[in-house]
Design goal:
Blueprint lengths: L2 E7 L3 E8 L2 E9 L2 H12 L6 E5 L6 H9 L5 E3 L1 H11 L8 H12 L9 H34 L13 H9 L10 H11 L6 H17 L9 H31 L3 H7 L6 H11 L2
Parallel strand pairs: 1-4, 4-5
Antiparallel strand pairs: 1-2, 2-3
Helix pairs in contact: 3-4, 5-9, 5-11, 6-9, 7-8, 9-11, 10-11
Protein name: Transposase
Organism: Leuconostoc falkenbergense
């Protein structure tokens, strides 16, 4: 006998249709929790052989079902939603969306869809990490843009202090000198303030030159807001936020390298000229197994 389970996945529940030799014998709903998955497991285990399990990839909502099946080593067919729609439209032109589970089960007897390849979990984890890395990178760009706009009101000249604004040193200085008026203190007072506020070592001569640059910029600056404006608090907030995000980004990359370095393709990709660790682990994460 040929057994098929078709599953139509929604946000918190799934419609399940069980078919035997082309005929649906059961149709019920499960929740995406221990109770629902135990109910599905009971159905699967009642057969003397593994049934064909067919469901669509519905973004994040189908991940729990997929994980449940992976943990139990149940083979399944994980369908691209567009491909599934085309198949069902051709074979069931008058289908009702409420019967998607039934239609998935019945069409499996006609199409005999192949089982999906299950990747090594390390590749799935790397993909999650890569997505998070990209999100953090996007947040860094957004934070940088927001800070640039606020700085135009408090101390725009400071953006020329370094050749690039991607150094944590620059962002840390912004938390100490968020407004031009601060540079109009005495040289020694400004040097002491910076020396006490930074986390990195700086020599006396380098500090003196840095303070001279800041004081020169501050003298010609014409801020649009007063030193007690809330915009100053925003400058400090965005600068600290950038530092935090930059640290998180580095931590993710380090963790990805640590997780991927023992994979066989890691050294192969590293041998390609111009490929950094970031490029290598991102490529592995996106290509998968």
């Amino acid at each position: 006998m040929h057994y098929v389970i078709g599953i139509d996945v929604s946000k918190a529940t799934s419609q399940v249709a069980v078919a035997v030799d082309g005929k649906v014998t059961q149709h019920f709903k499960i929740t995406h929790d221990v109770l629902g998955f135990n109910q599905l497991n009971t159905i699967i285990m009642q057969f003397n052989e593994f049934p064909d399990i067919v469901f669509e990839a519905t973004g994040i909502y189908s991940r729990r079902l997929k994980s449940f099946l992976d943990w139990h080593n149940y083979p399944y067919t994980f369908l691209n939603p567009l491909a599934a729609k085309k198949q069902l439209d051709q074979l069931r032109p008058n289908k009702n969306d409420l019967n998607d589970a039934k239609n998935l089960a019945e069409t499996q007897f006609i199409l005999a869809r192949a089982k999906s390849y299950v990747q090594n979990p390390i590749y799935i984890e790397l993909q999650y990490m890569s997505r998070f890395y990209q999100q953090i990178n996007h947040d860094i760009v957004s934070t940088k843009d927001r800070l640039h706009r606020i700085l135009q009101l408090t101390f725009p000249e400071i953006e020329g202090l370094f050749s690039a604004t991607d150094s944590p040193h620059y962002w840390e200085l912004l938390t100490i000198v968020p407004h031009a008026i601060i540079t109009r203190r005495s040289r020694q007072a400004l040097m002491d303030t910076i020396q006490a506020g930074i986390s990195w070592h700086i020599g006396h001569e380098r500090l003196r030159k840095l303070v001279d640059q800041l004081m020169s910029m501050g003298q010609i600056s014409a801020p649009a807001v007063a030193a007690n404006s809330y915009n100053v608090a925003q400058v400090i907030y965005y600068a600290k936020r950038w530092i935090e995000l930059h640290g998180t980004k580095g931590d993710i990359l380090t963790a990805m390298v640590d997780k991927a370095k023992d994979l066989p393709e890691y050294s192969i990709y590293q041998s390609i000229p111009g490929f950094s660790d970031k490029t290598v682990v991102s490529l592995i994460a996106e290509l998968g197994d």
